[in-house]
Each structure stands twice: as C-alpha cells, then as structure tokens.
Amino acid sequence: MAALLTIFIWGTTFISTKILLKDFQPIEILLFRFLLGAAALFLVCPRRIKGTSPKQELTLAAAGLCGICLYYLLENIALTYTMASNVGVILSVAPFLTAILTHWFLRGEEKLRLHFFLGFLVAIVGICLISFNGAQLAWNPKGDWLALLAAFVWACYSILTRKISAWGYPTVLITRRVFLYGILFMLPTLFFFDFRLGLERLTIPTNLVNLLFLGLGASALCFVTWNFAVKILGALKTSVYIYMVPVITVITSVLILHETITPLSGVGIGCTFVGLLLSEYKGKALSQPKQNMQV
What we know:
Mean pLDDT: 82
Distance between the termini: 26 Å
Order of helices and strands: HHHHHHHHHHHH
Number of strands: 0
Number of helices: 12
Helix content: over 70%
C-alpha cells in the first residue's frame, strides 16, 4: 500500500510540474520542493539521528547525491535534449537495473526470478505503447543516455536505501537526513542554471498550491513511504511499481486535463498491469544462494 500510494502521487506530479514551469526553472522547482520536504519532516519529527558512524554518514550522503540531486537533475537535463516519451520509457528500466545491482550487492537477500524478467518485457511493451502513442519515435543519443544514467542512479539509490533500512533508524529521520545531503549537493549546481529566489512568485495561489503539493506530498510524504516500502519489501519488489507511473499519468490526464485514452494506450495500460503482476509473482528463483547474507 505504501508503494502504491507513492506511485499514485508521483504519477500525478507531472501536472503540478507542468504548471510551475510557466514561472519557475526546473532547478528552482527541485530546490524549493526538497527544502519544503525537509522542513516538513523536521516539524513532524524534530529529533536528530544519533550515533551514526562515518561510514553510515557516507552512505546517507551517497543516497542524497543519487536519489535527490543527480536523479532529478539528469532527468530534467535529459528532457531538454530528447522527447518526454523517450525519457518515460528509458526511466522505466530502473527496476531491471535495480535487479542487476541487487544480484551483485545484496546477493542472497532477493532472488532473481524468471517471472520478473518476463514481467519486465511485458511492462516495457505496455509503457512503449502508452508513451509513443501517436508520437514519432526518434533516437536522441545525448538525452537518451542521460535518461538511462538517471535510471541507473535511481537503482543505486534503491540499493543504498535498502542498506540504510537495515540500521533500524526511524524512516522519517533517515529520509530527512538524505534530503539535507541532497540539497547540499544541489547547491553548487545553482551557479550553472538560471536560478533566482523570486519568492514573489509564491503569491500566486496556483504556484503556491502546486509547490506545496510537490514539497509536502511528492517529496516529504512519498520519499518516507517509498523508503518504508523498500524496508519492508526490498529494493527489487518495490522498484517494479515504477511501471505504474505512466499508467497513473494517463489516468490523471484524462480526469484532470480531459484528455482521451486511445485504443493503443488502453492496450498499453493492460500490458503494464500484467507486467507488474508477473514481476511480483512468486515463481521459481533463477538461482539459489549458497548461504544467507549476514547482516
């Protein structure tokens, strides 16, 4: 339920982002939303994490760099070079990359199953039908490779989150610390983008409401629920819910923007659902670990 709630909200954020892009630069939206998210998590739980080791702090910093700073920057930059449909499909390979990294770094914790790979193929077919419906398929190497790098960075974040969850710290405190590291890494990039504070833009009710939604909902709430889901389900099982983002996007565009679902989009939604179910199905593992991982 936590993973589904997260994906449902993340699948609707494109509407808020699209509205805010009229008055804000992508880097401004990114910084403001995570500043709001960190502030909200501090109000919810003002306690501090105590007793972390230097190695643990490095892991938290790496999570902030990957999941907060690099992922969103790479995604936004990729969108300036290639089509949004390309980025949407390429980012959907994140569960596959997560599976590879899980097999390498968390061997014995989550088994690779044939059903996962079958589900991946079916889901990608569905996402392609949704994303390229009525659009011209075009290969834009720079933007597409940046999108693939963003998917890889998110897979790294998933693995780091799984490792961090084993420490036993409260999820809210961990998420807030990761936010702070992400914001810290984000600050130097402001000099390379057209950033300005421009708080007068927040006097426009539409801007304020949508930024609050991104900061409090899509950032503060969703990263807590996502990290909680990774803690309970594991990095691999949680990551496959990413397949549902294009589906949620299509459904919300129909409900809010009054767009129509074409037959190809309908088939794509069906394939994506089937792919998710196949990936989550508990079939026979492709390989059995020799021994359990020691925690």
